[in-house]
Amino acid sequence: MTGEFTGERLKTLLGDCPIGRDLRFHTSTDSTNEELSRWANEGAPHGAAVVADQQTGGRGRLGRTWFSPPGVNSHTSVLVRDALPPKRQSLLVYLAGVAVAETIRECAGISPFLKWPNDVHVSGKKISGVLCESPAVPGAPAVVLGIGINVNGRGEDFPEEIRDTAASLSQITGRQFDRALLLSSLYRTLDRLYKSFRHDPATVFALWKQFAGFPNVTYRILHNGATIQGGAVDLDADGALLLRDGQGRLKKIHSGEVLEYMREGVEDASGH
Ligand code: BTN
To answer: In testing the pocket of ligand 1, which one of 75, 114, 143 has its CB within 8 Å of the most ligand atoms?
Structure first.
C-alpha cells in the first residue's frame, strides 16, 4: 500500500527537517525548477522546496525534456541559499546525486550507480536525473537542485524513445513506492549530507566516487566536438572528471555528453 501524495502528508512526515519546511506542492506545474526560481526571485529561503505530481514542461540537461506524467513519479526542486562560495555551488550536483543514491538504497534496498555528472542508474537504466541551476535572483545567490525520480511507472508508459534506456523503481523491484515517504527520506538525506558538504565536500565526493564505481569505470565522452575515452581516475576539487586515456594522459573534463560507460565486471550500458 502506498500513502497519499499530498503536501500535508509530506509536511507531517518531514517533522522538523529544515529542507521542505517551506514547501509548495502542486498537482501540476510547468517545471519545479522554474517554479522554485520564481519563488527564489520573491525571496524563498534556504531549504525551500517545490514538489509536483506532474510537470508539463519538465526539463533535463542539455536542453532535453524530462518525462513527468501525473500519478507515478517524483519531481522536486530544493533551494540552496546560504552563501556558499561560488566554486562550491557548482559541486552541488554531486551532493544531490549521493542523496538520491542513498535514498534509493534505503527505500528500495538497491544500490544505484552514479553516472557522471548527474544520472542515477540501476541495471544500466536511468531511474533518476539531477538538474542544478543558478537563477539570477536578488539577494543571496540561489542554487536550485532539481531531482526527478522514476518511481511507480510501467515500462510501456515511457515514451518509445527512452523505453530502452529508462526504468522506474517499481519496474526494477516489482514493488510500488510511497512517494511522500521517498521524498521525506530524500530531504532528510540532503539535509544530513549538506551539513557535511558545507563544512568540507571531501566526504560527499568520496561517497559519490564509491557509487560511481571509481576507478573501475571507463567513459567515452563527447567533449568540445571530440570524443575522449578513458578510465575514471578522480574528481578534482572543481568537480571536473579526471580520465586517463589510452596513451596514459590525464584528461580533465568539466562538461560533456557521456556516449557510453563500461564498468569492470558489469554489463556495458548506453550513456543515456
Ligand atoms: C537530467 O537527467 O537531464 C536531469 C533531469 C532533471 C529532472 C528534474 S524533475 C524536477 C526538476 N524540474 C525540472 O524541470 N527538471 C528537474
So the answer is: 75
How many angstroms separate the CA atoms of 207 and 121, rounded? 16
Q: Answer whether the bond into residue 215 is a cis peptide, omega within 30°.
A: yes
How much distance in Å is there from the Cα of 246 to the middle of ligand 1?
A: 34
Q: What is the pLDDT of residue 64?
A: 94
**CB–CB of 127/115 below 8 Å?**
no
Q: Per-residue pLDDT for 31 more than 90?
A: yes
263 Cβ partners below 8 Å, 6+ apart? 113, 213, 216, 217, 269
| Residue ranges of E strands in the chain | 23-29, 49-55, 74-80, 113-115, 119-122, 125-133, 143-149, 217-223, 226-235, 241-245, 250-253, 257-263, 269-270
Look up residue 141 and give its amino acid.
P
- pLDDT number for residue 1: 54
Q: pLDDT tens digits, residue range 211-260?
A: 999 999 999 999 889 999 999 999 999 999 999 999 999 999 999 999 99
pTM over 0.70: yes
Q: Give Cβ neighbours of residue 180 (< 8 Å, ≥ 6 apart).
A: 3, 4, 5, 6, 9, 10, 13
User: Which of 129, 149, 138, 186 is closest to 38 using CA atoms?
Assistant: 138
Q: For ligand 1, what atom is nearest to the CA of residue 30?
A: 14
The set of protein residues with a Cβ atom below 6 angstroms from ligand 1 is 31-33, 55, 58-61, 64, 66, 75-77, 118-119, 129-131, 146-148
